[in-house]
Structures are given as structure tokens and as C-alpha cells.
Amino acid sequence: MEKAFAYICAASDAAPRLLKRYCRKVYELGYVPICPKLSEAQYLQPDNADEKRDFHSIARQKLGRCRMLVVCGNEISHSMSAEIGAAEKRNLICTTLDGLAKIKEADENGGL
Fold first, then answer.
1. What is the 8-class DSSP label of residue 110?
2. Which of 18, 49, 70, 96 has its CA 20 to 30 A from that of 76?
3. 5-108 has CATH 3.40.630.30 classification
């Protein structure tokens, strides 16, 4: 069965271990987590202006292929607001990690 892609929206300074935890939770809820902050950080250097631009381009392309954006964390940073705005322009579902868990719970309980 195909699973929907869920874009992980988190603070740019979120620790990799935290990003991995967010991805794991989204995976456990039945979605494919897409987290540019975790994956592209493996090979792009944010202090290089060209690579920083490339990072943002790659992230936008990945967001465009997702069905939803999942806001993770307690605070919404400026970069997160930009990602949320881009998702809204594409009419993507925007939810929080807790909201996604509640949706899954409601589905399992027959839509209660």
C-alpha cells in the first residue's frame, strides 16, 4: 500500500536526534517522513551561499511532492512560517505532530 509523504517542518537549529524522533513518529503514524533539514544537511554546507540556496530549492521541491506539512516543536520560527505559507499556497494539509496523532487515533476508533 502506498503511504502519503509528510513534510517535517521544524526549527532550523533542531538537533538531528530530535529530527530523527519526529521522523520516526510520523513513520509510526503511517506516513513517509520527508525531512530536508535532516537529509540535505548530510551533504550541503549552510554557510556556503550557493548551497544554502540549493537547500531551499530542494526543500521546496520536496514540499511540492508531499500531501501534508507536519509542524514539529513548540515554537514556530521565521523559516517554519515560510514553509507553512508555501504549503498553504499549494493547498497542502498543515497540521502538528499531535494533530496527526489525533487524526490517526480517530481513524482507528471509527471516526470518533
1. T
2. 49
3. no
Contact 7, 87 (CB under 8 A): yes
Q: In the chain, where are the structural domains located?
A: 5-108
- On the question of pLDDT at 70 being above 90, the answer is yes
Question: CA angle, corner 96, sides to 22 and 85, nearest 5?
Answer: 110
* Residues near 74 by beta carbon (within 8 Å), at least 6 away in sequence: none
The DSSP secondary structure of 70-90, one letter per residue, reads: EE-SSS--HHHHHHHHHHHHT
Can you read off the three cell numbers belonging to residue 10? Answer: 521544524
Single-letter code of the amino acid located at 7: Y
11-21 pLDDT, tens digit per residue, is 989 999 999 99
